[in-house]
Write a structure and sequence with these properties.
Blueprint (H helix, E strand, L loop, with lengths): L14 E7 L6 H16 L3 E7 L9
Parallel strand pairs: 1-2
């Protein structure tokens, strides 16, 4: 006798992404990046984006 195959799919594990960007904290572009991350997470609730400021070019040169 044939048995029906399961149609259930296992739950996907949540994904967390750390997004590094070189825009001054507190600057207007930081709000844009935070807004873009929030909008993305609203459309993709299974993915969490953590925007992290990495410093500007001068901060990152030796």
């Amino acid at each position: 006798a044939a048995t029906p195959e399961s149609t259930e799919t296992p739950a996907a594990k949540p994904v967390e992404i750390t997004f590094y960007y070189p825009v001054n904290v507190g600057g207007p572009l930081t709000k844009v990046i935070d807004g873009m991350a929030s909008a993305f997470m609203e459309q993709h609730p299974e993915i969490k984006v953590n925007p992290v400021y990495t410093g500007n070019y001068g901060d990152n040169t030796v």
